[in-house]
Design a protein that fits this description.
With 336 residues, the protein is of the alpha/beta class. It is built from nine helices and 15 strands. The chain folds into two domains: 154 residues, Alpha-Beta Complex (Quinone Oxidoreductase, Chain A, domain 1), CATH 3.90.180; 150 residues, Rossmann fold, CATH 3.40.50. Bound molecules: NADPH dihydro-nicotinamide-adenine-dinucleotide phosphate. The site of NADPH dihydro-nicotinamide-adenine-dinucleotide phosphate has 32 residues, from helix 2 and strand 15.
Length: 336
């Protein structure tokens, strides 16, 4: 799947193009390379940021005319590298193609398959970047305490569903906002949120939050920015914490709405902090250990939205920005 040209609007399927090419069937001797069969690719909102020609970011933009890349799970099918053997499963930055010759395999991470009974695709979800984002954002930025109230936006998505479940494990009262009745049902009936609401059906978000949090909000895990952030600011309790994880509501908007209620940061002595998960890499081993235990004990569930085939990859990615995905958006490229 090729990235065509930089954009300054919401991404469209036509910004990507499926092209047929060939990859060598074996790895050249002495090259140190590995040949991968790609199994699962991840669609993540941050990839929208790589579609604009903006270099002052934590990640470089895509190159027009070249293959899109993102987190993925692959099987090694040939190797000239002593660290990898055919049959190994790996995760890392994987090009959006069926087979990939990887020149710098040192950036790939071997998956200890069998460590938990989890599906391989969870290594780009629950045990991958989205899970880690939820973990560091909640634990390091929000510091939730038992009995506190927690609001999560984009709550049924890759990150949000884990934030809510982790907050429940901390003994908090958790409410999620999501874009459809189907998602709200999922949050309440499968993912254990105390309550949830369809933000698109609310005329007045400030009033909606007052209704759901009569005692106020102690923690807001913000995945969307914009109007929800503004409404949350007016409902925060003194000494509340806001983790600014992402602003997906602004991705397609030419002229984003201004935030009017920042003065509440002062009145309510709120700690509001943006973060990028990769800055917390030192917490990865502890995250994997805790999340694996939660999963094996049945304390955390994970919902995926799997689309099959590279031909559907562009549509799956674009769907993130209209809320088409129900759960973590994954592309299944081929089976093992
Ligand atoms: P999701 O799986 O939650 O998918 C995106 C969701 O965003 C959609 O399903 C939709 O849910 C919601 N959405 C789309 N457009 C809008 C809009 N205009 N207004 C409000 N909601 C909208 O994505 P992720 O869980 O992967 O990512 C969630 C957030 O976390 C993103 O902002 C992302 O950039 C950020 N992120 C940040 C990281 C960090 O290190 N800081 C790392 C990873 C992710 P709905 O139907 O409920 O509206």
């Amino acid at each position: 799947v090729i990235f065509k040209a930089y954009i300054d609007r919401a991404p469209a399927e036509t910004d990507m193009e499926l092209r047929i090419g060939t990859v060598a069937a074996t790895v050249p001797k002495g090259s140190g390379m590995v040949l991968l069969k790609n199994l699962y690719l991840s669609c993540d909102p941050y990839m929208r940021g790589r579609m604009r020609d903006f270099r002052d970011s934590y990640i470089h933009p895509f190159t027009p005319g070249e293959t899109i890349e993102g987190f993925g799970v692959s099987e090694v099918i040939d190797s000239d590298n002593t660290d990898f053997r055919p049959g190994d499963f790996v995760t890392g930055m994987i090009p959006w193609e069926e087979y990939s010759l990887i020149r710098q395999p040192d950036k790939l991470k071997k998956i200890e398959h069998g460590r938990s009974a989890a599906p391989l695709s969870y290594h780009i979800g629950l045990f991958g970047m989205p899970g880690f984002t939820a973990y560091v954002g909640l634990k390091e930025i929000c510091c939730p305490k038992e009995g506190e109230t927690v609001l999560v936006s984009a709550a049924s998505g890759a990150v949000g569903q884990i934030v809510g479940q982790l907050a429940k494990l901390e003994g908090c009262y958790v409410v999620g906002s999501a874009g459809s009745k189907e998602k709200v049902k999922l949050l309440k009936e499968k993912l254990g949120f105390d309550d949830a609401f369809v933000y698109k059906e609310e005329q007045d978000l400030v009033a909606a939050l007052k209704r759901h949090f009569p005692r106020g909000i102690d923690v807001y895990f913000d995945n969307v920015g914009g109007e929800m952030l503004d409404a949350a600011l007016l409902n925060m309790n003194a000494h509340g914490r806001i983790a600014v994880c992402g602003m997906v509501s602004l991705h397609g908007v030419g002229n984003p709405i201004g935030i009017h209620n920042l003065y509440n940061l002062v009145f309510k002595r709120i700690n509001m902090k943006g973060f990028v998960q990769s800055d917390y890499a030192h917490l990865m081993p502890q995250f994997l250990e805790e999340m694996t235990a939660y999963y094996e004990q049945g304390k955390i569930k994970y919902v995926e939205d799997v689309r099959h085939g590279l031909e559907n990859a562009a549509a799956a990615f674009v769907g993130l920005f209209s809320g088409r995905n129900v759960g973590k958006q994954v592309i299944s490229v081929s089976s093992t």
